[in-house]
Amino acid sequence: MFDLLLTGLQIVFTPSTFFLLVAGTVLGVIFGAMPGVSASMAVALALPFAYAMNPVIAIAFLVSVYCASITGGGITAILFRIPGTPSSAPTTFDGYPMAQRGEAGKALGFSLIASAVGGLVAAFAMALVSPQLATVALKFGPSELFAVSFLGLSVLSCLDSDNIVKTLISGLLGLLLACVGMDPMLGIARFTWGNSTLLSGIEMIPVMIGLFAVTEVLKQTVKPKKIDTEKDATGSGAGKMKTVLPSMKEVWATKFTMIRSSVIGTVVGILPGAGATIASFLSYAIEKKVSKHPEKLGTGIPDGIVASEAANNAATGGSMVPLLSLGIPGGNAAAIMMTALVIKGVQIGPMLVKTQPEYLASVFGSMLVTNIIMVIVAMAVAKVFAKILSVPYSILGPVIIMMAAIGAYALNNNTGDVALMAGAGIIGYMFVKLGYNSAALVLGLVLGQMCESYFRRAYTLTNGSLTQIFTKPITAVIMICCIVMLVYPFIKPLFIKNKAEGK
Which residue of 72, 94, 242, 481 has the smallest Cβ count within 10 Å? Predict the structure, then answer.
């Protein structure tokens, strides 16, 4: 462990490499804060720069972009309710209400500290138990991965405990939208109604931008509510809000949430295909279950921000475990990194860590340094974004719509995605008025394709035997947890009623 740390620090503190890490961190935070640019897209945009680098330095550079982009996504999620990356969507639940109360600086501070802690925990976990955890991840076949994806869907019952039925309906609508496009197994068009734009399916990012950003602009247009920066913890005036790092006492108050979410994010990140989005939603849901004040989550408290940001940043380190130990990318961003290494002639696989430990050391050192540097970089970037808060909403609203439209269009250079974003914004506004849950729809859309794909693979491999799918030990245990999470909110009132009658 000490040798790995020493080697990693020697690599990253080489002047040229350190400069590249700082540049990668700046790029990552900016890309992550831009609507429509996911973490994997940020890595893809940085990929051309890595082609001219030494493979060991290239992987360190791409890791810095990856980690920083996840953190950057929380900036616009808090300030404007626009998740910069899909994994930052749960951050809006508590981050944006804090910003509306004039505590945007404090919300950003908690976000950055949680991101750094989550990333550092994952980095040490990756270095310490990479081979062991990767061996466990190998036991996860299609049936187990379906169970993990379904566990993410079971979060639906926790997103809005006061309106469970409408939340579940919203999630089911998201699952229905996930079925639009080409059948993943048969290649047959489904629910496209002859529209070529829908052949590739309902893109998640335009829908997410529409449901969060466009909906918020519509809400502000109908009933304006200006974010008050005068009441910010800094005591500064409007337009001068700056990030306020929480005190040690405030951080200590969220210590269990931070540790729990970091562990959840690391474990989920290790599972191939799971990723930071599932980690952040799952961590937020678990926090709602174990919190001493679950009714406050979603109203603007630090615990919600910490749960989301610690988990999605920890997932970045977790996703590197199967890549380095087994040659199996843990997510889209890891797959792009693997492509870069393969192009450079690196033999990815189980022997990489043993024969060329400098790659693991490089990633380890890069994650340690990046998670510290990105706090400073993100504070500077957030200060620039925060100046926008002083702009009148009659100007800011159209600018946000323009940024959202650019983000949606840039995904595939397709005007159909812009129309999809606009439609999602109108639906999101209707959801708000009717009491439905936009986040549940996004969750259903994100996990719907994964659930279907894994289930159908498992169904094919077992020759159509549902018994074989659900009686596997790991699958059975996870599915029992899913059922408990889904059913508990419905039977909880009965327990409370029986307890009251018993008195």
Answer: 481
pLDDT value of residue 410: 72
- N- to C-terminal Cα separation, the chain: 57
Secondary structure (3-state) at 243: coil
Which tokens is 264 given?
A: 């959840």
Question: Which of 103, 75, 14 minimizes the C-alpha distance to 377?
Answer: 75
Q: What is the predicted pLDDT for the residue at 231?
A: 47
Give the SS3 label for residue 181: strand
Tell me, what amino acid is at 230? E
| pLDDT for 1 | 58
Do 229 and 236 touch, CB atoms closer than 8 A?
yes
- What is the pLDDT, as a whole number, of residue 132? 65
CA distance 353 to 134: 12
According to DSSP, the β-strands at 181-182 and 189-190 are antiparallel
Among 17, 150, 123, 37, which residue's Cα sits nearest to residue 410?
Answer: 37
Q: Report whether 119 contacts 314 (CB < 8 A).
A: yes
The pair of structure tokens assigned to 9 is 């620090």
Q: Which two tokens stand for residue 322?
A: 């199967």
Enter the pTM of the model. 0.70
Q: Which residue has the tokens 């508990």?
A: 488
3-state SS class at 332: helix
Cα separation of 134 and 124, whole Å? 15
Check if the beta carbon of residue 298 is closer than 8 Å to that of residue 93.
yes
50 and 242 Cβ atoms separated by less than 8 Å: no
Residue 305, token pair as written in the block: 């921000």
Residue 433 burial (C-beta neighbours within 10 Å; 0-12, 13-18, 19+):
exposed
pLDDT-flagged residues of the chain (< 50): 228-239
Instruction: Count other C-beta atoms under 10 Å from residue 480's C-beta.
Output: 12
Backbone angles phi, psi at 163, to 5 degrees: -145, 65
- The crossing angle, in degrees rounded to 10, of helices 55-80 and 39-50 is 150
The H or E element containing residue 182 is strand 181-182
User: Nearest-CA neighbor of 367 among 431, 405, 323?
Assistant: 323
| Contact between 263 and 121 (Cβ < 8 Å) | yes
DSSP states of 445-499: HHHHHHHHHHHHHHHHHTTT-HHHHHTSHHHHHHHHHHHHHHHHHHHHHHHHHHH
Question: How far is CA 187 from each of CA 38, 180, 196, 332, rounded to the nearest angstrom?
Answer: 26, 12, 14, 22
> CA–CA separation, 338 vs 364, rounded Å?
16
Asked if residues 392 and 86 have their Cβ atoms less than 8 Å apart, the reply is no
Residue tagged 């999620």 (tokens): 77
